[in-house]
């Protein structure tokens, strides 16, 4: 009887977590529909001129939709990673979206510009210099983890944008375990989502990445706090 109850309790817990992850991921997908449609149009463009035309709305929509939506998703991931320590437990996704909108959209413009410059450099040097292309690809990996870390720092601390950027960059460059954990776990999820199970993208991909990234970040925070107390 106890074993049956335990199995039912386990199944209930699993189904509850699946619902949590999928609901937030679907909300995140809904907010990012404009950005997704623009990116799909760019991938299907037949000329460079079409890409450049679509670049203008992309520069606007990414900071105004993707970054606030992703910040809200990381805020929910923070709840899941540390449920017993949350100051405002079980807030809605929309609550976090509104709460962080101004900050995340402002920083989003900076990151969007950095990503566009990096993409342009990779595109240019891919036809001219293999070494420079590889260098910019490595910079892309660093920028990617920096971006993930920035989301984590934003939802975990109450800092000014300038201080958040500094803290995020410092953690990115000085924490190899967190760096590898974020990069490898995210790379696996993105590969599975893009190459094998595309349906994961609107249902689970974003929330799993946010959860794993914040878990790696929070383990580092606990370790740093422990070292400071000794």
UniProtKB/TrEMBL annotation:
The chain crosses the membrane at residues 28-45, 51-75, 108-125, 131-157, 169-193, 199-221. It comes from the Bacteria. Keywords: Membrane, Transmembrane, Transmembrane helix. Pfam families: DUF624. The keyword Membrane applies. This is DUF624 domain-containing protein. It comes from Halobacillus yeomjeoni.
